[in-house]
Amino acid sequence: MKIALIAHDRMKEEIVNLSMAYEGILSEHELYATGTTGLRIMEATSLTLTRFLSGPLGGDQQIGAMIARNEMDLIIFLRDPLTAQPHEPDIIALLRLCDVHKIPFATNLGTAEVLLKALERGELSWREIVHKE
């Protein structure tokens, strides 16, 4: 599966910790990330990621393009709910694209862990069916 990992600045430590905790599961999949998030994850783990631009510089849109082409299976975007983001429209566009293409989208640690545990159990294999349409 293709998985995107994204985090706002104040959430980067959480996504790094999540990546370390679930490194075994994540290592079995094709990983993508926005700039700094991807760098921080690669520095803390042995995971290999394809890195895009920083979110505000277009990384969110690069991931959105993959979603629009139905080339992404799962998004983990740890959002900072207490800080206004200048690129909020890009974030809303990602959410909308995920809804259109039926892609699971976690915006907090609790949902991310539920999705990763489901992935480990093979419960997200229905995404493979969606790819074939």
UniProtKB/TrEMBL annotation:
It comes from Brevibacillus borstelensis AK1. It is an enzyme of class 4 (lyase). Transmembrane segments: none annotated. GO terms for molecular function: methylglyoxal synthase activity. Residues 1-133 form the MGS-like domain. The lineage of its organism: Bacteria, Bacillati, Bacillota, Bacilli, Bacillales. This is Methylglyoxal synthase. It comes from the Bacteria. Substrate binds at residues 8, 12, 34-37, 54-55, 87. Catalyzes the formation of methylglyoxal from dihydroxyacetone phosphate. It catalyses: dihydroxyacetone phosphate = methylglyoxal + phosphate.
